[in-house]
Design goal:
The protein is built from twelve helices and 14 strands. It has 389 residues and is an alpha+beta fold. It is elongated, with a radius of gyration of 32 Å.
């Protein structure tokens, strides 16, 4: 009897193990694996042309494009826009070509033919941590230095030779040629003169407020203003040549903030066969020295801005985070954005901007974000807290 009972117990334990043991181990393994994976829901669309009325082929390609766009949206969250453009080939070859490896699962929300195109919309669960890790390995997450060569620069330098105004604009042209060679955009002097006239800015060169208004009217990011004067030096012992000495002084104004970011002065001599030519040669040489100085320091001075942190809470999908990032990027105050972390519905975005513009950024944020409603809950000297409603 005891032997029969023991046999029944052993068989029961065996059957229990077969029925429950393996699934329990599998469940734990899956839970551990899922705990290590950071995923986010992303909605994306894909389009494909219908060729030779082959719907099945177009359907397949539209799905692939939607999956690729879902991964590309993740790349756009973590990689600064300037870097994304500059490294487009690397991203395409190293990240977007491995779309299937980043998408854990997906479901089709809608699909169908629209004219000559087949359109598919999906909701994908993307392993954003894997994308982030691969982007980091490629060195694409370091924030690039903000580009300044596309800034518009206005130059107004008044020239005098022996106390008489010289209208050839030697100093302005010399500075402009140097900045143009560095790929800056230089505003035409007649455009500046017209703006000053329209604003009745009679004290333009000495009045900061007028300079700011003129700069805003001509849409110049920077104004370089100053004076240059050349005067007779000597005509003795030069074999018939005439020597002049010139001095130039200038200041650099960041228009929007009406902030003086640099100033300096230089001098040089010039010789020629006539007083007028010698005077202009001296002006040109002095301006050339000033231009080299500007080339050395201007880019560095224009890049000086501060970092602030924008914390976004209540994020349900990565599409919402993308909308916030686009809203920030559409502000003139913002130089670049980069997501530093995103997990459990909370994102930390690093923003490069003028420190004086934090309040302006916070004020605009609620209206700049399209498609969702956001609320700014706190603002400090270095951070903005935002909640998605």
């Amino acid at each position: 009897m005891r032997k029969a009972i023991l046999t029944v117990l052993l068989v029961s334990l065996f059957l229990y193990g077969c029925a429950t043991g393996r699934p329990n181990i599998k469940d734990v393994t899956n839970k551990n694996r899922e705990a290590k994976e950071i995923t986010e829901i992303i909605q994306a669309e894909g389009l494909a042309a219908v060729i030779n009325n082959d719907i099945l082929d177009a359907k397949k390609r539209a799905l692939g494009e939607a999956q690729r766009n879902a991964v590309e949206m993740t790349v756009g969250v973590y990689v600064n826009a300037a870097t994304r453009v500059e490294k487009a080939i690397m991203v395409d070859q190293q990240i977007l070509s491995k779309t299937n490896g980043y998408i854990k699962k997906y479901k089709i929300l809608s699909e169908g033919r629209e004219g000559d195109l087949y359109k598919t919309k999906i909701e994908a669960l993307v392993k954003i941590e894997d994308v982030n890790k691969d982007l980091n390995l490629l060195g694409l997450l370091a924030p690039p230095a903000p580009a300044t060569s596309n800034l518009r620069i206005g130059i107004v330098i008044t020239d005098r030779i022996d106390g008489v105004p010289d209208t050839d604009g030697i100093s302005e042209l010399t500075l402009a040629d140097k900045l143009l060679s560095l790929q800056y955009k230089v505003v035409a002097i007649n455009e500046i003169a017209t703006a000053a006239k329209n604003l009745k800015a009679d004290n333009f060169l000495s009045n900061l407020d007028q300079q700011k208004k003129v700069g805003e009217l001509i849409k110049a990011d920077v104004l370089i203003t100053g004076n240059a004067a050349s005067s007779f030096n000597t005509d003795q012992g030069l074999g018939g040549l005439i020597s002049y000495r010139a001095a130039i002084s200038f200041k650099v104004l960041k228009t929007k903030q009406a902030a003086l970011i640099y100033s300096n002065s230089f001098s040089s001599g010039g010789v020629s066969t006539t007083r007028e030519a010698a005077g202009r040669e001296a002006l040109k040489r002095a301006a050339a020295i000033a231009a080299e100085d500007l080339a050395r320091v201007l880019d560095q001075r224009l890049k000086t801005f501060n970092f602030i942190s924008v914390s976004v809470k209540n994020i349900s999908t990565l599409n919402q985070l993308t909308a916030v990032i686009k809203g920030l990027q559409n502000m003139i105050e913002v130089k670049y954005t980069q997501t530093e972390s995103f997990n459990q519905g909370i994102a930390e975005i690093k923003v490069g901007a003028e420190i004086d513009n934090i309040a302006a950024i916070a004020q605009k944020l609620e209206t700049k974000v399209e498609g969702i409603k956001v609320k700014v809950t706190a603002v400090t000297n270095s951070s903005i807290d935002v909640e998605i409603q």
